[in-house]
Amino acid sequence: MPVPQPPSQPTDRSNATTDINPVLALKELVARLHREQHKIQDLLSSLGFALRSFNNLNQFLELIPLMATRVTDADGGALILYKPNGQVRLERLHCQDSSQQKIIRKALEAATSAIAASLTAAQLVPATATIDAQISNHLGANVQLFGTPVLVRHVERGRLYVFSGNRDYTWTEERQKLVRLVADQTAVAIENDELTVELRKKERLDRELEIGAEIQLQLLPRQCPNIPGVSLAAFCQPANRVGGDYYDFIPTNEDALKPKAIAPVSTRWALVIGDVMGKGVPAGLIMTMTRGMLRGEVLNGHSPARILQHLNRVMYADLENSHRFVTLFCSEYDAQTKILTYSNAAHNPPLLWQAATNTIKRLDTLGMLIGLDTHNQYENSHIQLASGDTIIYYTDGLTDAANQSGDRFDEENLIRAFQWACKRSLSPQLILEYLFDKVRQFMGSASQNADDMTLVIMQIQ
Fold it and tell me: Given CA atoms 192, 196, 201, 203 in this order, what sign does their dihedral have?
């Protein structure tokens, strides 16, 4: 009787195969995930490098659909942007299958045209549901579509779409996150480009303001003239680079404008100070126009009142259109007689320190702002000056200067400081420096003058 044999056991090779296959599969999965992760990191790193390197926004936007497609293994991507005029435009498109490029482009352009046509004047940005529905409808129901907004400063400026025709393709959370990341990079690029444009505009404007300030500085007297028996000092501190304050010393005869070598010393001079309501470039332009007209009037030999009347009539239309007005104090000093003739167009009255009586007098006449009414009338007045008499011409930037509490320096403080300086027989330059120092001390170091400040000191020797 044969001896029964024990049942056969599985070979060692079959056991090894059964145990090793799951391990190999897991290793392969991990390796594939690592490869995918490195690919995504490389693509996003390239996108970040492009964002830092490209100066041309269009070049950068060219990469966006391509990158979004690559990092998600999709069939294609499209970047659609909203324009300020309400236009919805297909900005960039990428398809893995180039043969499908024309078909998809045509579908997307038809969708964006339909979206733009549905917008109203009050709605320049399409609703998210509307644009997603239109894009999906034109691409077809078999396309797996995902879209995310491009947000610039919390405002939706477009949408980034990625699509696939593979039925088994799914928009996992990881893929959606990657598309949003690319869209965020797109928003950063658009914002950077707009900031660059704004910066260039600001640089251009700054340069124009510098040129305007240089021109205006050249139009103001470079130094005080030599008037017989008179000592002068003057300074203008604009609130901005271009200001609306103006002062001038104009000889009343044309010979005094000739080169010093051949010009006789003029004994009659017009001393003028003015202020355009407002500041900055518009005020500076109006004051430049005023200066040209005023110089012509002075050289024609007109009296201060007649000069103001002519200026008002000529400038009325331009000032009315610009909704601005000009205050102007016009005076003429005769060095031989020491008589000052003056007329005021609603400017701050100059202050006269009379040395003989130790008193202060305001030099004022009736007269409205230049540009307020074409029929304004102005009047002349005159005063006899004596040795030691001192006059300050100023603009309201000094008296309106405010401290941190909002209190104004006002005319009383200016008179008090002026009186103190005159009693100590200070020179015009020292008086000017002292008055400006008093105003700055009143304002405090943290404050800046909100209006142009101009001061002219005239002292009879």
Answer: positive
Q: Which of 267, 264, 284 is nearest to 275 (CA)?
A: 284
Helix (H) or strand (E) holding 65: helix 57-72
Cα torsion through 422, 425, 426, 431, rounded to 10: 10
Instruction: Collect the ranges in the chain with pLDDT lower than 70.
Output: 1-54, 120-124, 208-209, 211-217, 240-243, 254-265, 278-281, 446-447
Short-list 451, 349, 364, 351, CA closest to 400: 451
Residues 132-157 pLDDT 10s:
888 899 998 889 999 999 999 888 99
- Angle CA 205–207–213, to nearest 5: 100
**Which tokens belong to 294?**
């005023």
> Sign (positive/negative) of CA torsion 281, 285, 290, 292?
positive
- CA–CA distances in Å: residue 287 to residues 247, 325, 327, 332: 10, 10, 10, 20
pLDDT of residue 300: 86
Q: Which residues of 24-34 are buried (b: 16+ CB within 10 A; e: fewer)?
A: eeeeeeeeeee
> What token pair was written down for 401?
């200067």
Rounded distance between C-alpha atoms, residue 217 and residue 247, angstroms: 11
Number of residues written out for the chain: 461
Domains of the chain: 28-194 (3.30.450.40), 219-460 (3.60.40.10)
Which residue from 347, 377, 376, 350 is spatially nearest to 361, judged by alpha carbons?
A: 350
SS3 per-residue string spanning 241-283: CCCCEEEEEEECCHHHHCCCCCCCCCCEEEEEEEEECCCCHHH
- Cα–Cα distances in angstroms (integers) from residue 102 to residues 77, 132, 224, 320, in the given order: 14, 20, 76, 59
Residue 318 tokens, joined? 């331009």
